[in-house]
Structure formats: C-alpha cells, structure tokens
C-alpha cells in the first residue's frame, strides 16, 4: 500500500422491482433516514452467508409481505456510484419480479406503507431508484 491509497467500507445491498402484469410497480414508504417518508424500492443489506438474490427475496417479504422464490428473480443490474447513498458507499444489485395483478402487499420492518403505483405516475423516489426502475422497464419491454 502506498501513502496515497485509501480504503473505504463498501456495503452490499439488494433492491427488487416488483411489477404486476398490468403495469404497476410496488414501492414502500421509508420509515427511517436517509430519505424518511420518501418512496423507494423494497430492499436492504445482504446479510452474512446470503446471496444478493436471497437478500432481495427476504427484504421483499420483510418490507412488503410479498413472497417470491429467489430463483425467479431476474437480475437487472448493479448500481455502484460512490454518492448513491448519503450514509456512505453502498453497492446494490437490483432484481426484477413480475407478479399477478392481484398480489397484495403490506408494510413491515422499516417500511411505513407499501403500495402499488402505475409506472406513468410514480412519486419522487429515494436514492437512485428511478434509474433502477428505468432499467426494469427496459428489461420488461425487451
């Protein structure tokens, strides 16, 4: 290591875009900072011993009460901009799940609300979740 090298802690998270067959997307309202009160994709930290895919399915169940088989999640990308999270360096792996239109959601864990939104009228989102949703939309249309 040279005198000019620096090290930063990098945390791994997983986010999941849950889209219905009729064009809606699941968002949660954040109950904690950063972005308390803003809408976001379900997601969170990857725990020790789990993959990002397993974390995405777990976080979706914890925050919105929606159960999916991790094997059915489709990876749509990795977001790693150094400033994407005000808490520090967070790298997220994002996944897509398509669920039936009648799928219900209920807020849990650190979410105060969970609701379905039409793709064409989304609220302002936390973090870079708008870019993740754009990638999911591209994946769905291809």
How would you characterize the overall build of this protein?
- This protein is α+β, with helices and mostly antiparallel strands and 142 residues long.
- It has a single domain, classed as Alpha-Beta Complex (Nucleoside Triphosphate Pyrophosphohydrolase), CATH 3.90.79.10.
- The protein is built from 2 helices and 7 strands.
- A hairpin with an 8-residue loop joins strand 2 and strand 3.
- The protein is globular and about 55 Å long.
- The mean pLDDT is 94.
Radius of gyration (CA) equals: 15 Å
Strand content: 25-35%
Net shape: globular
**CATH domain class:** Alpha Beta
Instruction: Supply the number of helical segments.
Output: 2
CATH homologous superfamily grouping: Nucleoside Triphosphate Pyrophosphohydrolase
Give a quick account of the main beta sheet: strands, pairing sense, barrel closure.
4 strands, mixed
Fold-level CATH name:
Nucleoside Triphosphate Pyrophosphohydrolase
As for the number of domains, it is: 1
- The end-to-end span amounts to 45 Å
CATH architecture: Alpha-Beta Complex
Query: What's the total count of β strands?
Result: 7
SSE series: EEEEHEEEH
The structure class reads: alpha+beta
Regions with pLDDT < 50 over 5+ consecutive residues? none
Give the fraction of residues assigned to helices.
10-25%
Q: What's the overall average pLDDT, rounded?
A: 94
